[in-house]
Amino acid sequence: MWKWLHQFAHPERLYSLCGRLVPWFAIAGGLCLLIGWVWGFGFAPKDYQQGDSFRIMYIHVPAAIWSMGIYASMAAAAFIGLVWQIKISDTLVAAMAPVGAVFTFIALVTGSAWGKPMWGTWWVWDARLTSELVLLFLYLGIIALYNAFDDRRLAGRAAGILVLVGVVNLPIIHFSVEWWNTLHQGSTNMQQSIAPSMRTPLRWAIFGYLLFFITLTLMRLRNLILLHERQRAWVIALINRERQS
Q1: Rounded distance, CA 203 to CA 58, Å?
Q2: Cβ–Cβ contacts within 10 Å for residue 165, how many?
Q3: What is the CA radius of gyration of the chain?
């Protein structure tokens, strides 16, 4: 099995595989988000306490969930890169980081917009909000660190170490509402706390965000592979074919 997986660490094969997968993930992600958002914004009933303002959760909740999920994926890739010295793992971390930063930014902005009618203010130094802001800084730091070195191997190693150090923030984000007295609502059990008419479109939106994360990561991974392999014969041949067509 490991030999079968290892063949995809070859840049040329991975580039080709990503190109074949991107359209499928993009179409599937678009359909999931279309279903989730049309259902959630157009047909889900009003919340008896929040009215229509609750509908922002169809943007906020998936972004918040995957802001942490993407970081966990980066940590797994960074661990593989540091332990088994697989170079493509470092490239994968670099591909995921900007996507995770955007998701985290969306979560913070929509969370502030949701908090205004609920709390009466756009921002409080709440434990959940503050730890999510720290996550955004971690993403930005990883991006900056990766681009601070000309040596790709050194850059990947430095960024990977920062990713693994920052993993400690994930349980802080998740359990902050339990460890501290915060304004942010506690952890929600979707199965028990959200009515099916609201829960189902939320699940579609969450899955749509996941598929778009994969799509954007594969697109960025292709670009980074071309950048890093630009002196290789297969990239030069690919560019020549594109110019001729």
Answers
A1: 9
A2: 12
A3: 20
Give the separation between CA 132 and CA 135, rounded to whole angstroms.
5
Burial of 172 (0-12, 13-18, 19+ CB in 10 A): middle
85: left (phi over 0), alpha (psi -120 to 50) or beta: left
Contacts of 222 (CB under 8 A, 6+ apart): 15, 18, 19, 22
For residue 22, what is the DSSP state?
H
Nearest C-alpha neighbor of 126 from the set 207, 55, 184: 184
Note whether 204 and 36 are within 8 A (CB): yes
Residue with the two structure tokens 């304004």: 183
The structure's pTM equals 0.93
Query: Are residues 173 and 105 in contact, defined by beta-carbon separation less than 8 angstroms?
Result: no
The answer for 191, left when phi > 0, alpha when psi is -120 to 50, beta otherwise, is: alpha
* 3-class SS of residue 47: strand
- Number of Cβ atoms within 10 Å of the Cβ of 50: 14
Of 9-18, 95-104, 122-131, 234-243, give the range with the top mean pLDDT.
95-104
Q: What is the distance, to the nearest Å, from the Cα of residue 52 to the centroid of all Cα atoms in its chain?
A: 27
Query: To 10 degrees, what angle do helices 57-84 and 87-119 make?
Result: 150
Mean pLDDT, the chain, whole residue set: 90
* pLDDT digit string, tens, across residues 61-94: 999 999 999 999 999 999 999 998 888 999 999 9
* 174: nearest Cα among 19, 59, 68: 68
